[in-house]
Design a protein that fits this description.
about 350 residues, Rossmann fold, 2 domains, single chain, about 45% helix, alpha/beta
Length: about 350
């Protein structure tokens, strides 16, 4: 533990991010094979939903390259109480709730059970595991290092376990070694990212951060935003290029707060999008809006993805300490859930 404010030792959790992949593979290694499907529907909320965003990025990067299948696997996400139509046809449903007790996800799971849809459950226990056992549905018991471990910090566990299930069902080629290579790269990067995260936290302090990403990596901008909300307990917002150039940027004609904009720049992005980054920075700075470019790491899509998340973790962690906030608990979420059941 680096700081007494960090009572649950998120510092250690971030340092150990890279080991999550192998543990995720192991958690799903004995999962029963169901069959091969052209779609995956991932039902989950909050931090339990985020690995689905990362899976979409990764699978899209495999198609036509290392994975030679004729048709791209479609990845859909469900963040509601009911399944969308795509869940019903040629689809493997992933029901993901780290706690196992997320009410929206449980409702979607019950719909899948009622309609006999091909399904795999992912949780650390709870109602999801009970429903899987009762209905003879495969269940992946996710690792949980401690009782106060948070879903938003379990992205590697859940991502790797979902990949393992897809491999076992012959939906993608075996890519475990590529992912393990990424894990080794992250082990080398984590300390470098720590120092950079401290710098970013200082730039954010006292302002409202906004995170912009490319179309391919827009989920990363969203994840940075979420980490600021839950770790640093502060408002934050996100969007992506080029869409924001057609609407959101006009709002900075008359800003009503002090913002700092961070653009997650992928140097392999479309050349016109890279041009947009430079022009946007110039236009906003003329209006006295602070804009910081965060260069994404070079390398594979998977490495870029998790390296960026690691940097976001450190940045939000050190911002939490600056604000005197324990980065782990989310008391407002827990209080909200208690009010819902009244």
């Amino acid at each position: 533990m680096e700081n007494k404010i960090d009572a649950s030792n998120m510092y250690k959790t971030i340092l150990e991010t890279a080991v999550q992949f192998d543990e995720g593979f192991s958690s799903a290694k004995n999962t029963q094979k169901i069959g091969r499907f052209g779609r995956v529907m991932i039902s989950g909320m909050g931090g339990s939903a985020l690995p689905g965003n990362l899976l979409r990025i990764y699978l899209n990067s495999l198609f036509g390259k290392k994975d030679k299948r004729e048709k791209r696997i479609e990845v859909f996400q469900n963040r509601f109480y009911a399944l969308p139509p795509e869940a019903y046809e040629d689809c493997l449903n992933f029901i993901v709730s780290y706690s196992g007790n997320t009410e929206e996800t449980i409702a979607s799971f019950q719909e899948a059970i009622d309609n006999r849809l091909p399904t795999v459950g992912f949780s650390r226990g709870g109602k999801i595991q009970e429903m899987c056992t009762k209905n003879n549905i495969p269940h992946v018991l996710l690792p949980f290092p401690s009782d106060d471990f948070q879903p938003r910090m379990a992205l590697g566990y859940v991502f790797a376990s979902m990949v393992e299930v897809l491999i076992k069902n012959d939906m993608i080629d075996d890519c475990r070694q590529d992912i393990r290579q990424t894990s080794r790269q992250l082990e080398e990067y984590v300390m470098k990212a720590q120092e950079k995260g401290k710098e970013i936290a200082q730039k954010i302090k006292g302002t409202t951060p906004i995170f912009y990403g490319s179309t391919r990596f827009k989920a990363l901008a969203m994840i940075w935003k979420i980490k600021m909300n839950e770790n640093a307990k502060t408002p934050a917002f996100w969007n992506f290029l080029p869409e924001l150039n057609h609407n959101e940027m006009v709002g900075f004609t008359n800003p009503q707060a002090k913002f700092t904009i961070f653009i997650l720049k992928d140097h392999d992005d479309h050349p016109r999008n890279l041009k947009r980054v430079d022009v946007l920075k110039e236009i906003l700075e003329k209006r006295n809006i602070t804009v910081e470019i965060v260069d994404m790491e070079q390398g594979s899509v998977l490495y870029k993805t998790f390296a960026s998340i690691t940097l976001g973790d450190w940045s939000s962690y050190y911002l939490a300490l600056e604000y005197g906030q324990d980065p782990t608990p989310v008391d407002m979420v827990e209080d909200f859930k208690k009010e819902l059941v009244k």
